[in-house]
Amino acid sequence: MWRNTRTGWGLVSIALHWLSALTIVGLFVLGWWMTGLGYFDPWYNRAPWWHRSIGILLLFATLLRILWRLFQPTPQAQGSRFERTAAHLGHIALYVLMLTVLISGYLISTARGRGISVFDWFEVPALISRLPNQASIAGEIHWYSALALMLLAAGHAMAALKHHFIDRHDTVLRMLNPARTRRR
């Protein structure tokens, strides 16, 4: 139940999927909201601190997720050959965009040479800093890749719902309950 099989996702993959999905949406909403905060707003410094801390934890979870996926079997995708190819390319694009958003966020936060405090538990050092226009360029990349990630994630969710409700595949069920998909 912990590991993937050719017919279903294991608990680790399912947990990392849903944790990532909820966190990405939450960070996007938080990021959008905090761009409208005024200087004297009590959340002006607190919201970015939360955004950065959660973002770093998500970066670690994403790297763990990629490693886990590399060493686990991938359940066979359902649908036509076109749909299976689109799903494969879509998953690659999701991972590339997640890493782009997370790394560009790191580059924004470390542009002045200071590390990132993660909930005051530990600090991630500024490994790359003081590049010309680092914060501005990384900020543009961060914003547009986050928008692209939200659009692609919405498409991913709609495709899953299409497979579930129209095609009557167990695509959604495989990402909710590993026990149900092992009976094939």
UniProtKB/TrEMBL annotation:
Record field: transmembrane: 12-34, 49-68, 89-108, 141-161
Any Pfam family: Ni_hydr_CYTB
Predominant subcellular localization, coarse grouping: membrane
Membrane topology per record: Multi-pass membrane protein
SUPFAM superfamilies: Transmembrane di-heme cytochromes
Subcellular location(s) of the protein: Cell membrane
InterPro entries: Cyt_b561_bac/Ni-Hgenase (IPR011577), Cytochrome_b561_oxidase (IPR052168), Di-haem_cyt_TM (IPR016174)
Family: Belongs to the cytochrome b561 family.
Name by which UniProt lists this protein: Cytochrome b
Keywords: Cell membrane, Electron transport, Heme, Iron, Membrane, Metal-binding, Transmembrane, Transmembrane helix, Transport
Naturally occurring in which organism (per UniProt): Billgrantia ethanolica
Cofactor(s) needed: heme b
Domain Cytochrome b561 bacterial/Ni-hydrogenase, first and last residues per copy: 9-177
